[in-house]
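Re-run with default settings, no changes from the original entry. Doing this only to confirm the output is reproducible before filing.
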Amino acid sequence: MMAKRLVLCFVLLLLLPRTGSAAPRKQVVQKDIGAIVSALKPPPGYRPAPPQGLQAEANEWSVELTWKKSRDMFVKGYRVYVELDSDEEPEEGEVELQLEKVAETDGVSFREEGLEPDTDYTYWVSAVATNGKESEPTVIETATLPMTRPPLEVDILDMKDIFTNNYKMYETEGIGKVNIRNNTDERITRLKVTFTARGIMDFPSEFEIRNIEPHESRAAILKPVFTNQALDISEDTPLQTEINLSYYFNGQLRTFTTSRTVMLHDKHRMIWKDPDMAAVFVTPKDPPILDLSRSVATQVGDSTSPLVMAGALYETLGQMGITYVRDPSNPYQISDGRIDTVDYVQFPVETLKRKSGDCKGMVVLFSSLLESLGIRTVMLDYPGHMFLMFAVGKGNTAPKGELAGLLFPHDGELWAPVELSLVGSSFLMAWEKGSSQFLEWTAKKGLGMMDIRSAWKRYKPATLPAQLLRPAVVTLQDLEKRFGDELTLLKRLTVQAGSPNLFEAVRNDPGNVPALLQLGIRFGEEGDVAEASKYLMRATELAPRSAEVINNLANVRMLAGDSAKALELYQQASGLDPDDPYILINLTRCYLKLGQRVAAKEIFARATRLRPEIIDHYRGLAVELAY
């Protein structure tokens, strides 16, 4: 602390230069631009008078000195010293003072920063003449103020509750925002900020700030890295988080700590204020979801239609005994505008296990199954309820005829709305109900839409622990037994939705062979043998010598399992166009199907002689024939 200044007859002044052991001091000197140093030499033995009017103003970390400007023409400036504590005992009759020169200025003020709060300081100020002589010092004692706030502190501007199902998001978007404020008159350096949430972090997250200037505030976002242990939380739990600062001030390492309690929500929670959060519950890569969707796709493998796939999946859920139940404790909160209420959403695998779910659970289950097959989905909602629509193909215009009011253009595609609360009934009924709701709430301007794939950009699907669940296998025969010819009808509607121009062409000209041919091919691709045969037979009647028409009619007979009739038609097509190697390839496959390998090899050889490079496209067939 302050070394007391005694008035004695003899005073020993030790003027010490700065040393590396002294803490660096920041000097703020006010220049007096109008000061003019006299070029005249003072008289012999001249010594200037001490400075007058010396005053000190102190706060927690600094002292500012001011004094009156000397009117002596020989004074060129001033020197400022501060007393240092001495560790040695002075000899009897002496007072040993250690002074450190902290400034030399031609102005009339000096400011020293980086001081300790609640500490006594003694300053000496002397005048300096042009001959180098120094006056007697003017001495002033002062004390810095007690510290009422730390040099550096943190205000928590925002701290979010943690939704564990989306724990990955906080790593990029952050959990909260803090304001770091420098309360001092000195730059603070090497600042490190750490954030800790025990139990769901392996290590504290941290970042560094090189410098914070005096009285500067710096906003920062806290970006913790949570582990998937967060998904083990089984109920909403208060969690204590901690923010720590470490920094250097006045050469010393200091720390500051503050804490905030947040709510750690279990993995089923979300708020409808941000409907996109529901995307975390759509888990198309969850193994039980993949197993179920792929088993269904295998059953209807002759069709690539999203409409057929969706119908088969929907009917499979009904066949498995999965039912819709209304959640009596916490129904869909958007029904009365309470969008800030924390809601409960069931994961798809849990709906499969429990064989029941509310509208939210059914929607995320069906969306997961469709997305696992690459079918795009959008969640739909109106006050009190949620349903879904899925993309069936490209299109910007609502279809006419049978599909009018059932498919709707959106974002360059046609979409089919489905009401999932009707699971267990026919898919066509659920489709019709979903479409009527879509029309009603679109007209009321009350329909909300949430594109799953767009929402995934921010809310990634939750990665759930492995589940020991193997859904029961549902065969195509099971579905046909329960739902009749519904899948066949969906195949026909798929062709109608995807080929409106072809149907329009046939309506305008029933003898349009190219349109009939293309419709036959489209129905064949969907596995609808009856419709494909109908259109191709009409084309054959109109163009009996068209190798292309007869070749595709043969393809349909192969699809129907009638290889003998297919062979007859392939031979006819090849006779009409003997230079078409692709007809010969079809004929080769037909011979193989009938077990006639010698004939198959001979026909394959003819095809390769017509077009040698064709062997590269049918390498598997060549290997099978040992060609």
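DSSP finds 18 helices and 26 strands in the chain. The first strand starts at residue 12 and ends at 16.
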